[in-house]
Amino acid sequence: MHVLLVEDNPGVLGATTVLLKSEGYRVSTATNLEEAVQATRDNPDLCLVITDYHLSDGNTGRQVICALRELRGPTFRAIVISGDTSSAVQAFDGDPYLCWLSKPTRASLLLNVLQNFTPSTAQPVS
After folding, report:
1. How many domains does the chain have?
2. Model's pTM, two decimal places?
């Protein structure tokens, strides 16, 4: 499975990329909205995006997901990882193609979600 990882923290981006690749995932990376859009255009086989919610370029994971869904359609799957559990969560309430993971996220939980995440099973996970 080919996933797009959008993360602006170099340490988290690197560690998560290594984790995903070690489990057999093909990983493309981006650090901001513009790079995420370009990576999605360049990789028609992307199945899913994993994004941080707050990005240093001032954009949010919601904006990333909306932009990618403009390119791939409204059912493009997304996993959001964030420490923000307030209004950000409510912005995605009811989206069956999205899963929310709270920071800090254990590697085993992220991998479990990736292995089992289908539109019919998407729900927020703490």
Report:
1. 1
2. 0.87
